[in-house]
Amino acid sequence: MTASPDEPQKPAAAAFDEAAKDLADHLSSLPKAAAPVLPAPKRVEPRRAPPPKAEAPSVQKAEAPSVQKAEAPSVQEDPAPAISAEPPAPLRAERPAPAAAIDPPVERLAPSLAEPPVIARRLGADTPTDAAPASDSARPTAAARAKARHKLKPPKVDGAEGNGGRKPRPLLREFGYLCVSLFFIGGIAGLGALFLVIAPWPEEGADLWAINRTPAIVIEDRFGREIAARGARYGEAVAIDELPPYLLKAFLSTEDRRFYEHHGVDLKGVTRAILANIRSNGKRTEGASTITQQLAKNLFLSPEQTYVRKAKEAMLAFWLEGRYSKDEILSLYINRIYYGAGAYGVENAAKTYFNKSARDVTLSEAALLAGLPQAPSTLAPTQNPLGAQDRAFEVIDNMRETGDITDFEAREARKNPPVIATGAANNDIGWFFDFVAEKARVLAGPGAIDIVIATTLDQKLQRDAQIAVNSVLDVDAKVSGALQGALIAYDNDGAVRAMVGGRSYIESQFNRATQAKRQPGSAFKPIVYAAGFENGLTPSSRFVDQPIDIAGWKPTNYDNKYRGSMRISEAVAKSINTIAVQVSEKIGRKKVIEMARRLGMSSEIPAGEAGIALGGFSATLEELTAAYIPFADGGLGVRPYAITSITDGRGKTLWRRNQKPPAPIMEKKIATEVTHVLYQVV
Questions:
Q1: Which of 395, 396, 397, 381 is nearest to 349 (CA)?
Q2: 384 or 307: whose pLDDT is higher?
Q3: How far apart are CA 39 and CA 68, in angstroms?
Q4: Claim: this prediction has a pTM higher than 0.70
Q5: For residue 350, what pLDDT band results from cuts at 50, 70 and 90?
Q6: Could you say which of 86, 115, 220, 255 is catalytic?
Q7: Is 255 a catalytic residue?
């Protein structure tokens, strides 16, 4: 039986409704054309429909009406007559009036199983009329139906194929999109159910501004003056209505254009990304994480790339959307994410890179900031200015594409790129900052959010040390090819006064003063002689500088010359290798190693190698330099330190250095003798 247009529509499968709705929207967007006037079909007696079942009314497929050739004056000779973009009226059960024209098209397609002609129209089948279903004898042949389909193809408009020049997507592709979306939704639902079991939801009333926030670190010099800060120290939450509108639009156009339309997960974006990645043979070419998902990952999850983590991210995004407004989520996002160079939050980033508030950034500066969340460490303008600028240009293009800025504004922004503030990377103290920040996290303990570290650094000495290292490298690079160097300076009580880890912190954050292991060489000889003085030798003890052989190893002096008998003090002044080896072999290598351990050296020193007397092993500059402190401090076991106290943001003391006097690790006489022979070198 056929359904009357006055009867209520019967419920259908959800998937079909979605496909039909999408199809209806697509059809309604086609350019409208006048309906063709066709001759009235031959009248036939309709077949009687079987009585409906009691459970549910049956729906009988409408048979394709026969199409007769006629010399109707209203039918033009064009082989491809225009077809109305509106769907036809549903078939009626009553006998049709002998009218030549079909009913006017309905305004909108109602997705119902009672209207199969809609699908027939989409597939290019015969145009239905108000005629009743034809009998078997009146059915057109397959050849006739094929010919009719060929005749009823929509005409091309202005050389295009309608719909703005775009081909309508085949129904099969739309069905594919539906299947992919349903598959993804099903996967998210399944993994989300697993998430409900294996991971708790965030606690009600949790402070999202504090969850997983990277600690803000401020360091002070030896005189209590603030000299550097990292983290969210300057990243106070800035209300979005205080920020330039183009800054917010820069983020939305680049990270999530449908932010105010979706509910945490953008299914259209997900489907698009899945299909794009499938077309690229599994290579990930497009992401689909919304701003809400990125915030969920930033607040609650690790950065690992797994399906379970992705499911958690989606569920947490729904959780956030259900409890916070869109503006609150956007505010949390821009004020919490990482922008590189130790800057968390848009206010901190603006001050770090431009030395101004985020409220005052220009369009080009806003574009640069909005481009950083994709890869903050890689794109930080202090590290990669060209990469950061290229990314900013992409953001400007996105804003122009979405209509947020005009072509003129885009051109002006490109012509006036932002200028990065001088010293934005704290070049002078970058290595020292990293050094104390790592130690402070251990000393302050878990739970510390904002901390202030009082240090031993002397800013003047630090600047002088950096200049000295670079000056030496400028000369040595030409002579010996040395490209990097390091320096660390201690006070007599072990306080670190200066630390230089290389030529430029911006170019390399690797701290060669504390992380690089190199052979100490002759710098280890004073420790050998200290062990000798502790075992009966004195600066006046005499040894012969001559060729020696120790199990096949034959050490020589730097100039391959030998000077005969001399005192230890003279051997130290002239850096004679053979005498240092003779002292080590005379007292025993184990005693040399034991002295090094007492002086604080922790690197491996192989007892089976006679070459340890000449520094033939690896150690850091930090431990080697610290081993000299007891010599200058009368034999006291002074340990180096760089932090005097740690307080939280409210001034509460979290840790303070213990000022107990150091115990002696060698006799004062021995420390004095070592110091005396070292003076001979100067």
A1: 381
A2: 384
A3: 7
A4: no
A5: very high
A6: 255
A7: yes
